Every structure is written in structure tokens, then in C-alpha cells.
């Protein structure tokens, strides 16, 4: 069995004065997909942002390759691609310009053809030269997702990536995710949509579940990891 | 390292070119504020000449405040700021690029306009050049120090007023030496000391401000 690349140890996150989860531990190895489940407000986004380094956890540590991510920020960020609720796009720039900025900053040597190919793959060939603000919600999301094809990051963290996408785009994204996982990549995602995700080593993480004994008032929010494979 | 800064400068300049009204607001604010003084004070040549440097400098401070609140706020609101924090480059370099772009957009035009405005106050030859030189050294400091305030107040309600309260006191040394240099050279004394001190402030701000702003941004985004 492969060594786990990403390890979460006894993670605890607090938002305001509400404890979202504590003692959360799991690990991910190359070629696996983690699907995070949980009702609204259970801390899915906070967990993803904590792994991405945007939120400082109250307790616990997040290790990449055996070292905490905080100590190797640049190395970890090179392997990380986080797409959240915001598109992370400048609406005044064209899709092409948006992608080019991130490609340049990520240090990857990406030429114009690759950027255009990524946009074409996501069905945006005709809007390469249009500012993002005139695109529809779904098209904006597609531009943001095109970054998946450009940056050769190993770990993808996708917060609700299927929102606003049409059926064809959902299929396309699923294909991209499967190819990435098959290629030894890792994906952590949340979604409330009924999407048949099945790729590589599939793991499920359930946040905000009450323990079986529901009568016990004031019980701690808990989390569980199941590995059906 | 340089390519990171260049990439950010080009990006912010492109954005500014597509939002030209924002750039022009700052410049016209500066022009109007400076022009109001001769109208209000009256045509007393000696008095105007004496207050010229101070008026231009105070107007420059206020004008650079004007665009400061939006330095990081736009990127914060559309989520690009958090994406920029996750690129494998030091955040302080990205901040430096943004500050440099801010200076080119809102500081450099003030430097270029200043001789014309100085004429309204009866400044001549050497004094006009000195006014321009002090603004050339001083306005980057305004952008650099302002970035710290903008980063600290990011996402807060009423951030605009708070930035002014935080940052304007920090501008005082630059104001004193900047206006002082022009007055000193007009009085026939050398302004070397003033300029050296301003240069020192600029270097110090260049080293420390991007780093401090980056730290403040990390706190604000969380």
C-alpha cells in the first residue's frame, strides 16, 4: 500500500464560538478521492479551507509528505488547487487572461495553446476573448474549472464544483476528476447534488453526524470516515 | 521573483485600464483640492508661495487615501485574493506587485501633475523640480504604508474611514520632510538632509510594508 501523502491529525475547527468538528483524523494517498458529506453548517467548507491553509485550525495538524503544510507553504501550494464558492476570477479580464495570470504565478511553463485548449475542452472556445463578466454563471464556473487542466497540481480541493453546471459539463468534470485520480492525483470534494462519483479509492467523510444515541443532549459533533473499497 | 511582481503589476494595470474612471477620480480629486486653495486664500502671492508645498502634499496624501480602500477589497470580494494566497509564491511579493501598480495608477500621475499645480502658487524653476522630486520619493511610501492599513481593515464595516484613521498618522513623517524639503530649497537652504531621510523612509517601507501587509492579509481573509 502506498504511503499516505496527506494526513490530517486530530483536527479541530471552530467558527465563532461553535465547534464544528474535533478529533478529525484521516489520510489520503495518491489516486484517491474523498467525498465530504454533511448538512449545511456542518463545517465542510471550513475543513476544505483549513486543508488549503486559508483557515487556521484550532488544534491538530495537516501534513503533506510527512511535514506540516504550514512549514512548506510554497511546496504545498505548488501541489494544491482549491476552487471554492467564489470563482476567483476577475470579471473585467477575459477567461484567457484570468487563466494566464494564475498559470504564470503558479510557475508552470504554460503556453497560449494550452490555455486555449483547456478553455476549448470546457466548451468555451467562442468566449476566449470575452470578459468574464458577460458570461453566464455556468460559463464562469467552467472558466474557473479550466484551471484544473492547466496547473499540474496533485491535490484538488473542490467545494461544490457542480453548482451552476449543465448536465454535459457535469459529465465533463466527472471525466476530468476520474482521469486525475487514475493518474495518481487526489481529489477532495463536497457536493449536495446527486452525482455518481466513483473514481480510484473512494472514501466518504461524514461531518456533523450525531452519534447513534440521539437522545444524548449536547453530544459533541462528530465525524466518521468510511472506506467502502 | 521579478516575474511574480511583474505579473501582478501587469494584471492590476490591465484591470485599471478597463476601469479608467477610478484612475481619473484620484487625479481630478488632487487637481481640484489643490486648485481650491488659491481661490479660497486670495491672490496674495507671498502667502500662496509659502503654503504651496504643504497644500500640494496634503492633497497628495488625501488623494492616495481615496483609492486605498479598494487596493485589496475588490480581490477579496471576488475570491481572487484567496487564490493569490495559494499560489506557490511569497505573498509579500504579490503584495509588492499590487502596491507598485497602485503607485503607478494613483501616485505617478500626481508627480507628473505637480509642476503644473505648483505654478498656480507662484513656485519657480528649482522649487517646482524639488516639489516633483519629493513627491517622486514620497508617493511610493504612501502606497506602501497605505497597503498595511488596507490589509488590516479588509472586510470590516466602515473600513474606508478606519483606513484613514490608521494610515494618516503614519504619513506624518513623509509629509513633514516632503513639504520641508521644498520650503528649505525655496529659502535657499539645502534640501539634501530632507531628501536623504525620505529616501531612508522609502527603503524601510519597501522592505517592511509588503511583509506586514501580507501578514495582515492572512489574518483578514480568515
Tell me what you see in this structure.
The complex is a heterodimer of chains A (229) and B (222). Chain A has helices spanning 44-52, 73-78, 95-105, 112-121, 137-150, 167-182, and strands at residues 4-15, 18-29, 32-37, 59-64, 67-68, 80-83, 155-159, 186-190, 201-209, 222-226. Chain A is an alpha/beta fold and 229 residues long. Chain A has a 6-stranded mixed β-sheet with strand order 6-7-8-3-9-10, sandwiched between helices. A 4-stranded antiparallel β-sheet of chain A has the order 2-1-4-5, with helices on one face. In chain A, helix 3 packs parallel to helix 5 (137-150). Chain B has one domain (2-221). Helix content of chain B is 85%, strand content 0%. In chain B, helix 3 packs antiparallel against helix 7 (108-120), helix 3 (45-66) packs antiparallel against helix 9 (159-186) and helix 9 (159-186) packs antiparallel against helix 10. The longest helix of chain B has 30 residues, at 192-221. The model of chain B has no long low-confidence stretch (mean pLDDT 90). Chain A binds chain B through residues 52-56, 74-75, 77-78, 80-82, 84-93, 97, 101-102, 104-107, 131, and chain B through 3-4, 7-8, 11, 14-15, 18-19, 78-80, 82-90, 94, 221-222.
Task: Provide the descriptors you would attach to this structure in a database record.
heterodimer, A: 229 residues, alpha/beta, Rossmann fold, 2 domains, six-stranded mixed sheet, four-stranded antiparallel sheet, globular, B: 222 residues, mainly alpha, 10 helices, elongated
Distance between the termini of chain A: 13 Å
- The helical percent of chain A reads 25-40%
Q: Could you say how many structural domains of chain B there are in total?
A: 1
Distance between the termini of chain B: 26 Å
- Which band does the percent of strand residues of chain A land in? 25-35%
Amino acid at each position: 500500500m502506498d504511503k499516505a501523502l496527506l494526513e490530517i491529525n486530530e483536527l479541530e475547527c471552530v467558527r465563532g464560538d461553535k465547534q464544528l468538528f474535533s478529533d478529525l483524523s484521516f489520510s489520503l494517498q495518491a489516486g484517491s478521492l474523498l467525498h465530504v458529506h454533511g448538512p449545511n453548517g456542518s463545517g465542510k467548507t471550513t475543513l476544505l479551507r483549513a486543508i488549503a491553509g486559508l483557515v487556521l485550525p484550532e488544534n491538530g495538524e495537516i501534513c503533506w509528505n510527512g511535514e506540516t503544510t504550514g512549514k512548506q507553504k510554497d511546496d504545498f501550494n505548488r501541489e494544491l488547487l482549491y476552487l471554492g464558492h467564489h470563482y476567483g476570477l476577475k470579471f473585467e479580464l477575459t477567461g484567457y487572461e484570468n487563466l494566464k495570470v494564475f498559470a504564470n504565478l503558479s510557475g508552470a511553463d504554460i503556453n497560449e495553446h494550452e490555455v486555449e485548449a483547456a478553455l476549448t475542452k470546457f466548451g468555451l472556445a467562442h468566449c476566449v476573448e470575452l470578459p468574464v463578466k458577460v458570461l453566464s454563471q455556468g460559463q464562469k464556473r467552467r472558466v474557473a474549472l479550466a484551471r484544473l487542466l492547466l496547473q499540474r497540481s496533485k491535490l484538488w480541493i473542490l467545494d461544490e464544483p457542480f453548482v451552476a453546471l449543465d448536465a454535459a459539463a457535469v459529465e465533463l468534470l466527472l471525466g476530468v476528476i476520474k482521469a486525475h485520480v487514475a493518474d495518481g492525483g487526489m481529489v477532495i470534494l463536497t457536493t449536495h447534488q446527486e452525482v455518481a462519483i466513483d473514481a480510484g479509492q473512494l472514501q466518504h467523510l461524514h461531518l456533523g453526524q450525531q452519534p447513534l444515541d440521539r437522545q444524548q443532549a449536547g453530544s459533541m459533533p462528530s465525524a466518521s470516515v468510511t472506506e467502502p473499497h | 521573483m521579478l516575474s511574480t511582481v511583474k505579473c501582478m503589476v501587469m494584471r492590476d494595470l490591465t484591470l485599471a485600464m478597463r476601469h479608467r474612471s477610478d484612475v481619473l477620480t484620484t487625479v481630478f480629486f488632487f487637481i481640484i483640492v489643490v486648485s481650491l486653495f488659491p481661490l479660497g486664500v486670495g491672490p496674495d502671492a507671498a502667502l500662496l508661495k509659502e503654503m504651496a508645498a504643504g497644500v500640494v502634499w496634503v492633497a497628495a496624501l488625501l488623494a492616495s487615501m481615496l483609492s486605498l480602500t479598494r487596493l485589496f477589497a475588490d480581490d477579496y470580494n471576488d475570491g481572487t485574493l484567496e487564490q493569490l494566497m495559494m499560489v506557490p509564491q511569497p505573498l509579500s511579493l504579490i503584495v509588492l506587485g499590487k502596491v507598485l501598480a497602485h503607485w503607478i495608477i494613483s501616485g505617478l500621475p500626481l508627480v507628473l501633475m505637480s509642476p503644473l499645480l505648483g505654478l498656480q502658487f507662484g513656485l519657480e524653476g528649482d522649487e517646482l523640480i524639488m516639489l516633483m522630486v519629493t513627491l517622486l520619493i514620497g508617493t511610493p511610501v504612501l502606497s506602501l504604508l497605505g497597503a498595511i492599513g488596507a490589509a488590516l481593515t479588509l472586510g470590516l464595516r466602515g473600513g474606508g474611514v478606519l483606513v484613514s484613521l490608521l494610515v494618516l498618522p503614519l504619513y506624518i513623517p513623509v509629509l513633514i520632510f516632503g513639504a520641508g524639503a521644498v520650503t528649505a530649497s525655496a529659502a535657499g537652504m539645502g534640501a539634501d538632509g530632507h531628501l536623504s531621510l525620505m529616501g531612508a523612509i522609502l527603503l524601510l517601507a519597501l522592505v517592511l510594508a509588503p511583509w506586514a501587509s501580507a501578514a495582515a492579509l492572512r489574518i483578514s481573509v480568515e
